[in-house]
Fold each of these.
Amino acid sequence: MALFDAAPPSRPPLAASLQDLSDAEFAELDELLAGIPEPLEPLDAVMLDGFIAGVLVQPELIDPERWLPHVFDAGGHRWGESAPGPEQLRARELIARRYAAMNRSLAEFGGFDPLILEPGEIDEADAAGESGEPAQPVEDTATAPAPDAPPGTSGEPPLDATTRAILPWVAGFEFAASILPGLYALDDDAVATTLTRLYRFLPAEDADEEATAALLAKERPLASLDAAIEEVIACVAELYDLTAPARYQVETVRRAAPKVGRNDPCPCGSGRKFKVCHGAGSA
């Protein structure tokens, strides 16, 4: 799945524990998440991938224990009552590797390879459901309005193939941003504009969002799924760069009082030098 299959010639190959996930490992992770028992509601591998990106672009470094519980359950409830079992440990290992690989790719190359299913793969997964049976061709008519129904009375129109493919990934990103509000708290027009471009793939919730989506479709048309994926990558890379100064800001330590030199008069007012008065102990 990685965009960059080989390290630059000047660098040694990455250790196995630092490499991005293979296709088989993505599938393994998806199975581990799907196996989490009810009533927990885990993310799937595609939503998780978008979720990780949403964590990485925050204007602060987020401790994994703040966001990992929401991967295993949308409500953040604990998976298991005692120490993590082998399945959870393996899931954590794979998630940590994907997080590190995506972070490294964004930092070094300004891009990454999102885990987004092709429309045919989505249809197969939807048709197979939980039974594991081979998928059968299905028509996307569940949300289509009846031929003679008045507008707005019979559900939303069906999503186009590109939006259906991109939506789960962006929904995962949006979920991370909703539980980690640092990104939304930024007063930055560039961040807001980039988020609007990314969220064009989510269903509009009001008339303003519908108008914005229509304007984006006109100004920045996406002719194919590949173009849509490139737009997602560009948006995340821009957000990563925009928030980097805040994320890696080093706070300056400020003294409550001016520093006193060893030969300066002691601040206590004794008239003696600091080094023979209150500074004697530190010496």
Amino acid sequence: MPLLGHRNWILVVDSAYPLQVSPGIETIETNAGQVEVVRTVLAAINRAPQVRPVVFTDAELPLITDEDAPGITNYRSEITSLLRNYPIEQLPHEKIIANIDEAGKTFRVLVLKTNMTIPYTSVFIRLDCKYWSDDQEKRLREKVAAKNSK
């Protein structure tokens, strides 16, 4: 965790998640449960002084039924409870994969593969700076633009 910073990603993925080939993407098999790994990763991020999590989930997740994927309702309940204190952005799975593939060309992406066998359950965490907020960055960019326009 000490080496990771803003723009790095940590993915906690199901067992069918593809092995990606972008140079910055590293995949580790955890042999652990999805919720357990998400909990452990968030605890590590929360202890880190330099980063905070920006959480993404698949937009498909709320649309899947237990008829098609037994256990999905229980998983949604568990992961919703675990992520209740974090804003979550939902994007189509393919969009998230494309974002990660692009990020992996420049930044480190850590993929933690779990033993989850329910589709669209991956949790994607983009790390952001803990001690510099989006609002602070926006104000700085406005100052830079104002200075450059003079």
